[in-house]
Amino acid sequence: NKKPVPLLLQKIFSSDDRETDTASESSYSLGRIKKSPSSLTNLSGSSGMASLSSVSGSLMSIYSADFGNVDVKGNIQFAIDYVEQLNELHIFICQCKDLAVADVKRQRSDPYVKTYLLPEKYKLGKRKTSVKKKTFNPVYNEILRYKIEKDLLKNQSLNISVWHNDTFGRNSFLGEVELDLGTWDWNDKSNKQINWFPLKPRTSTMVLNLENRGEMKLALQYVPHPVGGKKTLPTGEVHIWVKECHDLPLLRGNRLNSFIKCTILPDTSRKSRQKTRTVAKTTNPVFNHTMVYDGFRPEDLKEACIELTVWDHNKLANHFLGGLRIGLGTGKSYGTIVDWMDSTSDETALWEKMINSPNTWIEDTLPLRMLMVAKLTK
C-alpha cells in the first residue's frame, strides 16, 4: 500500500482546469488572513454568477442569472395523462398565448417549455419542447414523456415553465404552472382534457429548496498547537477530512465524475484553494482526502468560513453540484458584512463543536446546498 506523497501548495487554476490531482493530503498556509475590508469586497452577491451560469442542464438553470426581469403574463394550454400500458406520464404541450416580451430591444420572445418532476428524487431530469422563434403565441403540439411508475407520482409535483431562448444562453423566465400530482385524480375524464392555465411568477418552493443535491460526510479538527510549530507564533491548524458524498445529482446522462474544492473565506486567492482528485462514474464518491490550513489564531475561527463545493468534472467545463459553508454564520467577517457567512444551523453546529473540542475529529454528514460561489481573486 503506497503512501501518497503530500502535494504542498498544489497549483489550482479555474473551475475548469484540466490537471489531474493526485494528492491525498495537501496543506496551505493562511499566513494571517487579511483583515482589510478591501480583501472582502470581491465577494459580492453577484460574484458567483459566472460560475453558476456554466451549470447547464441541471435544475440550476432554474436559478440561472437569467430570470431576466420579465413581468410574467399570458397562459399555457396543456393536458396530462398517465399511460398505463407504457408506464409513462405524458404531458401534451399545446400552445401559449399572450406571453411577455423577453427581448425588449428587439420586441420579441423565442419561447420554449420545460418540465420537471419535483422533488427530483428519481433523477428523471427535465424535458423540453422545441423553441418557437419570434412569437408571443407559440404553438407546440408536442408530447413530453416520463417513464415512471404511477405509484411514485403520489409524492411529486409537475413543474411546467416557459422560457425565452436567448442566443447567448441568458434565458429569461416567462412563467410557470405547478400541479400537485399527489391530489390529481387520474380517473376524472375532465382531467385528461386540454386546459388553459394562467402562467405564474416563480413560486416553486421545491425548486428553490432543491432537496436533491445529495450530502457530504466530513470531519473537522482544530489543532491549536501543531507539533513542530514555532512556540512564538500561537497559530493553529484546521484539518478538513472530506470522506465521501452520497446521492449526488446527475446532471447529464447517467455518468458523474466528481471532485471537491475547498476555499477558506475571506481568502479567495487561488493559492488558498485546494481540491480532491476526481472520482469517476459514481453518484456516491469516496474521497478520503485531508486538507490542512494553518495560520489560524483562535480569534480567526470566528471570522473565517470553510467553503466546500462539489463539481461534476467535464472536458468542457465543470458543473457545480452543491456545497457547504462551515462557519459561525454571523453574516459578518472582521467587521464587514458578507453574504457568504450564511452557514445553516447544522453547518454552524459542526464548526462550534470543532472550536470547542480541539485536537479531536468532529464528524457529520451535511446536506449540500445551492451556493453563490465566491469568485477567485488572483
UniProtKB/TrEMBL annotation:
Query: What cellular-component terms does GO give this entry?
Result: exocytic vesicle; plasma membrane
State the Gene Ontology terms under molecular function. Answer: neurexin family protein binding
SUPFAM superfamilies cross-referenced by the UniProt entry: C2 domain (Calcium/lipid-binding domain, CaLB)
**Record flagged with keyword Repeat:** yes
Q: Which UniProt keywords apply?
A: Cell membrane, Exocytosis, Membrane, Repeat
Pfam families noted in UniProt: C2 (PF00168)
Q: Which GO terms describe its biological process?
A: exocytosis
Quote the subcellular location field of this record: Cell membrane
**Residue ranges, annotated region (Disordered):** 15-46
User: Where are stretches of biased composition, namely Low complexity?
Assistant: 36-46
Stretches assigned to the C2 domain: 72-197, 212-341
Q: Which InterPro entries match?
A: C2_dom (IPR000008), C2_domain_sf (IPR035892), SYTL1-5_C2B (IPR043567)
Q: Which domain of life is it from?
A: Eukaryota
Spell out the PANTHER family in the cross-references. BITESIZE, ISOFORM I, SYNAPTOTAGMIN-LIKE PROTEIN 2
The name of this protein is: Synaptotagmin-like protein 2
**To which species is this protein native?**
Athene cunicularia
